[in-house]
Amino acid sequence: MDHPYHAYRSLFPVLSTHIHLGACSGSALALPVSGAIDEYRSALLKGGLNWEALLKKMEEAKEKFSRLIGAEKEEIAVLSSVSDAVSAIAVSLPEQPHRNQIAFTDIDFPAIGQIWLAQDRFKYNLAVIHGEDGMIRLEQFEKQISDQTLLTCVPHVSYYNGFKQNLKDIAGIVHQKGSLLFVDAYQSAGHIPINVKDMDIDILAAGTRKYMLGIPGTAFLYIKRELSEQFQPKMTGWFGKDKPFAFDLHHSGFAEGAKRFETGTPSFIGLYAADAALKLLLEAAPVQIESYLQKLARFSLQHGKEKGLQIIGPQTVHNRTSLISIRSEQASRIESLLREKNIITSSRNDVIRIAPHFYNTKEEIEHTIDAIAALMHGRRKI
């Protein structure tokens, strides 16, 4: 298989010694991203704190993320994690007398459901949309979202099995019922094209350390422009105010747009990393990245079956990503044994996950699947 991104591989030093297939947990670090981290450190060492430069970098990172998802920069806020973004929305949803239900799915990352379960306001008005074999049919949204649903929370891609949802179709159902749509795009942003306007997404959150090639500590929150003014954030801080540098104790006006959801001083080192990572991703182009990764996914499904492995989730590339999950009761142990072979994967409960990015090759996936098959079929005692 031709590798259209071969020239990019030299930007990821870990690939010279390891097979890195753990993008669903944390991507390989690129030299431009490492360089941006060094730029931040060097600026502090040589020139001290420079607020003007830091705020400029923050705006540059926001602008690049807005381009990645087809939004406007003013619709983007910076937070520290997707959990923080979901929590900020959860405690700030506008009161609507006849809408007091939150719907989320059983394929959401557990932390998302846990946040909704922790909200006293909605504790008796939660609807869990159940899937079958880790996948959800559109009919389930039709059935379980009602005219009392205030917000519906869904993952774009399942962290567990790579199942990819059709957000545009879900948005149509959700909005017909009068609900808002919140999308967790942590497992999609960076390798799957997203256009929040075309998909009609109301709110979206994504962190930078996985497919977006960044580091922990930085996440972006998108809120549709016409919605942001309806929210009165309960989690707040000086960056969420309209005059943060006025230092006026009694002034508490919110900033315009999504910025009102920002809190305290962000992780600027994370924003330096995010800016460089997003520049790299935009250059590589998510549309082309997805096309290449679909070829890898098709090969992974075929080769995994040939090796007698049980791959869970969708069995075609129609509604899945290149994240391939192989069932094993000893997934964590297999992950450790693969690490000894310089193969980086990621286990979750009873699956070992192979998650390539555009820098990976078919040969790396083939070698990894062969190694997993050898371990699972007893050619090496686990």
Structural overview:
The chain folds into two domains: 6-28 and 286-376, Alpha-Beta Complex (Aspartate Aminotransferase, domain 1), CATH 3.90.1150.10; 33-282, Aspartate Aminotransferase, domain 2, CATH 3.40.640.10. The strands form three sheets. The protein has a seven-stranded mixed sheet with strand order 2-8-7-6-5-3-4, sandwiched between helices. The protein has a four-stranded antiparallel sheet with strand order 9-10-13-12, with helices on one face. A two-stranded parallel ribbon has the order 1-11. It is of the alpha/beta class. It has twelve helices and 13 strands. Its cofactor is pyridoxal 5'-phosphate. Belongs to the class-V pyridoxal-phosphate-dependent aminotransferase family. This is Aminotransferase. Keywords: Aminotransferase, Pyridoxal phosphate, Transferase. Residues 55-365 form the Aminotransferase class V domain.
